[in-house]
Amino acid sequence: EPEVTQTPSHQVTQMGQEVILRCVPISNHLYFYWYRQILGQKVEFLVSFYNNEISEKSEIFDDQFSVERPDGSNFTLKIRSTKLEDSAMYFCASSDQMNTEAFFGQGTRLTVV
Amino acid sequence: KQEVTQIPAALSVPEGENLVLNCSFTDSAIYNLQWFRQDPGKGLTSLLLIQSSQREQTSGRLNASLDKSSGRSTLYIAASQPGDSATYLCAVNSGNTGKLIFGQGTTLQVKP
Do B62 and B1 contact (CB within 8 A), yes or no? Predict the structure, then answer.
């Protein structure tokens, strides 16, 4: 069964460092998303991406964040200068249409120290 | 602004019981509503998707209903099993970009 794959599963980084979280969405999907979940809190939307551009972003997704689809299979989230409060589980998701079922990856747990 | 609330926050039941999880949303103009399961420290597994034009969806022992006008959805789990223990999240798609707004979740414990 097709699935969304995220790497790494866990990343520890020092405050101020850049991190890149990687995702391989389901191959025929066109809509891509990043969400995050701070421990004990709701899953929060970060950004949606379609047709090689951002279609919507939340207030959380400030200038420190960027997304890219560098080739036909990967979808990345970059945090330029990490802060302690960026520590969270980051989920990538994809769907084939805007209003169809979204499939989530297993997440990357980011710990900023 | 769409807000999603789930009640109860936690639920503990003996094995074999039928149970209902509740989800409410403030803006009835939605495309669809999706129920997910999350095991501790793990990702989100999609359980059921209900489109705005549908009233319910079924998958095995799970049945989800949607009353868009009242801003409510329920997830019914029949004959609960210890393996059903997890956090159940509902999420609403009400924008035109596929963005999901999540509830806080209901943490279910099914005791053998």
Answer: no
Mean pLDDT (whole number) for B49-70: 96
pLDDT tens, position by position, A40-57: 999 999 999 999 999 999
Chain A's closest residue to B103, CA to CA, is A42
Count of beta carbons in the 10 Å neighbourhood of residue A57: 18
Whether B96 and A95 lie within 8 Å, measured CB to CB: no
Asked whether A94 and B26 are in contact (CB, 8 A), the reply is no
Name residues whose C-beta falls within 8 Å of residue B59's C-beta, 6 or more positions apart in sequence: B47, B48
pLDDT at A57 (0 to 100): 96
SS3 content of chain A, % helix, strand, coil (to 5): 5, 50, 45
Q: How far is residue B67's CA from residue A88's CA, in Å, rounded to a whole number?
A: 33
The set of residues, in sequence order, having a beta carbon less than 8 Å from that of A44 and lying 6+ positions away, is A35, A36, A37, A38, A58, A60, B102
Please indicate if any CB of chain B lies within 8 Å of the CB of A35. Answer: yes
What is the chain A residue with the closest CA to B34? A101
Using the Cβ of A31 and the Cβ atoms of chain B, whether some distance falls under 8 Å is answered with: yes
Asked if the C-beta of B59 comes within 8 angstroms of chain A's C-beta atoms, the answer is no
Please write the tens of the pLDDT for every residue from A68-89.
998 878 999 999 999 999 999 9
- Put simply, the answer to whether B43 touches A106 (Cβ < 8 Å) is yes
Give the pLDDT confidence score for residue A66 in this predicted structure.
Answer: 97
Q: For residue A60, what pLDDT is reported? A: 94
The residue in chain B having the minimum alpha-carbon distance to the alpha carbon of residue A98 is B98
